[in-house]
Design a protein that fits this description.
This protein is an alpha+beta fold and about 150 residues long. The protein has helices at about 5-75, 80-85, and strands at about 90-95, 95-105, 120-125, 130-135, 150. It has one domain (about 5-150). The chain contains two helices and five strands; from the N terminus they run ααβββββ. It has a five-stranded antiparallel sheet. The radius of gyration is 33 Å and the shape is rod-shaped.
Length: about 150
């Protein structure tokens, strides 16, 4: 049996078409795997960044408390200074800010009674992460045992 040019061409076209579909399918598969890997890397980077921000906010909140304690140790009229608003607020440190607040939980007045406790709240902010740390001091400005706690809003 003799083959004509027409039958050879039809077979070639069918073979080229199936190879083309196979290559196209493999290319799409590789593209999907690549895009998936990029998306996974992006999600992982975001999680690591948020975790680092959270860790830095804890350090900033603790630093704010430490600044307040240092001020108390250095200044005998610390209640008057704190009531006058001399606490660090919005102080930039690294890529974040720290803020310190002091309140009298008994009557809200820091200066009327030197025996009232004082609550120091240190706030750390980095990006969208915020951390609040609280400690209660006795009338002498000493930390009350077991009074450290995280403030949850």
């Amino acid at each position: 049996m003799m083959l004509t040019n027409d039958t050879i061409r039809a077979g070639d076209i069918r073979q080229r078409g199936s190879v083309y579909v196979l290559v196209l399918g493999a290319s799409i598969l590789v593209a999907v795997i690549g895009v998936s890997a990029l998306m996974a890397a992006r999600v992982q980077h975001g999680a690591i960044s948020r975790s680092a921000d959270a860790a830095q906010t804890r350090l900033l909140a603790r630093s704010a408390i430490d600044l307040g304690l240092c001020s108390i140790r250095q200044n005998p009229t610390w209640r008057t200074l704190f009531a006058a608003g001399t606490l660090p607020t919005g102080l930039e440190l690294g890529s974040g800010t720290l803020t310190l607040t002091a309140t009298d939980p008994v009557d809200g007045n820091l200066t009327n009674n030197n025996t009232d406790p004082v609550v120091l709240i240190g706030i750390g902010n980095v990006g969208q992460a915020t951390y609040r740390l609280e400690v209660t001091l006795n009338g002498d400005g000493m930390i009350e045992s077991g009074s450290w706690r995280r403030v949850v809003n």
